[in-house]
Design goal:
Layout lengths: L1 H17 L1 H4 L5 H8 L2 H11 L1 H19 L1 H22 L2 E3 L14 E3 L2 H23 L3 H17 L2 H9 L2 H41 L17 H12 L4 H29 L6 H15 L1 H17 L1 H7 L8
Helix pairs in contact: 1-4, 1-5, 4-5, 4-6, 4-10, 5-6, 6-7, 7-8, 7-10, 7-12, 8-10, 10-12, 11-12, 12-14, 13-14
């Protein structure tokens, strides 16, 4: 146990170093990239040595930043960088004996039922929405106050960029207000979707590192076989309806909707990987889809999310399997 805690403390120190430039207020391309990878060491130790190691890392990283930069950066690290990997690693390593049989001395991990990857991805969406909601409450505590804070931040950012400021000065006041209002409206949704993708990316990278090093505690289902519970589609529908509510409640629902649409797009992509097995032009088709995601972003994400919802409603993969068209696992 002690060695796991020590490994976690070391990982937390590394995570703090990766985020130290942003915590100090010095933002550049390099420092931003390092900051985005800050949760990766915690995911690696959490999934390779257990959630206690991840928790030790979260605390050590928070203490490091609090010691150097003050209390608030430390708390921010603990909540936004250290906490999510700890929770997700704890869930990922939940298991129970398989009902299909018991181990006879071989790989015991194969004789256990592990927490489903699909549910873990849904937890990522839930955590993302909750973090944004907490930030709104701390800034406001209502939608108007939060948007006022964002508007001030955007206007200050514009002033720091002479080229953009000059271009906007040449436009009329109504265009400037529309420009700022658009970003104020979209930024919480962008934050939620981006946080989901970054967390999933760090989690995926940690899984690959542990697989290569032989430290992975649990087996992972192939990406095309990820499944969501049926209730996930109902939760998404409820969030979409609730987003029509005014003011703060509507904003909260929009944030959760954005996070859920993002993970449903991931499910849609997994379904597409499954359905194109043994398809002659599979590589070309998938490359086209990924290019469309890069170019069209939200439009492609919405189409993929609809594909994910269709999988839950109509069992697209099960229909293909029933026709005897199953293939490889990539």
């Amino acid at each position: 146990m002690i060695h796991k805690i020590l490994i976690g403390i070391g990982a937390g120190f590394v995570a703090a170093i990766l985020s130290i430039a942003v915590a100090a207020g010095t933002v550049s391309i390099v420092s931003l990239l390092l900051f985005l990878a800050a949760p990766l060491p915690l995911f690696i130790v959490g999934m390779g040595w257990g959630s206690i190691a991840a928790a030790a890392g979260a605390l050590s990283g928070a203490i490091t930043l609090a010691t150097v930069f003050g209390f608030l950066p430390g708390v921010s690290f603990l909540i936004s960088i250290g906490g999510p990997p700890t929770v997700l690693c704890y869930l990922a390593l939940l298991s129970r004996p398989s009902s299909e049989g018991s181990s006879t001395g071989g790989d015991q991990t194969a004789d256990r039922e592990w927490y489903p990857m699909g549910r873990l991805i849904l937890w990522v969406a839930g955590i993302a929405g909750t973090l944004i909601v907490v930030s709104v409450l701390l800034s406001g505590p209502d939608a108007q106050s939060y948007r006022a804070v964002l508007e001030t931040a955007i206007l200050q950012s514009i002033k720091l960029q002479p080229g953009l400021a000059e271009a906007l000065q040449q436009a009329n006041e109504e265009n400037l207000k529309a420009f700022v209002a658009f970003f104020v409206r979209m930024m919480p949704l962008f934050f939620a979707a981006t946080w989901v993708l970054l967390t999933l990316g760090n989690m995926w990278a940690a899984i690959k590192v542990l697989d290569v090093s032989g430290r992975s505690i649990r087996p992972w289902a192939p990406f095309p076989e990820i499944e969501f519970p049926r209730m996930a589609a109902g939760v998404l529908g409820a969030c979409v309806i609730a987003s029509l509510l005014p003011d703060t409640l509507g904003l909260f629902a929009e944030v959760y909707t954005s996070a859920l649409v993002t993970v449903f797009a991931v499910l849609g992509l997994a379904v597409l990987h499954y359905l194109t097995r043994d398809y002659p032009a599979r590589i070309f088709l998938l490359l086209t889809v990924y290019l469309a995601i890069f170019m069209f972003n939200w439009l492609a994400a919405l189409l993929l999310a609809a594909f994910g919802v269709a999988e839950i409603g109509f069992g697209l993969r099960a229909r293909k399997t029933s026709h005897g068209q199953g293939g490889s696992t990539t």
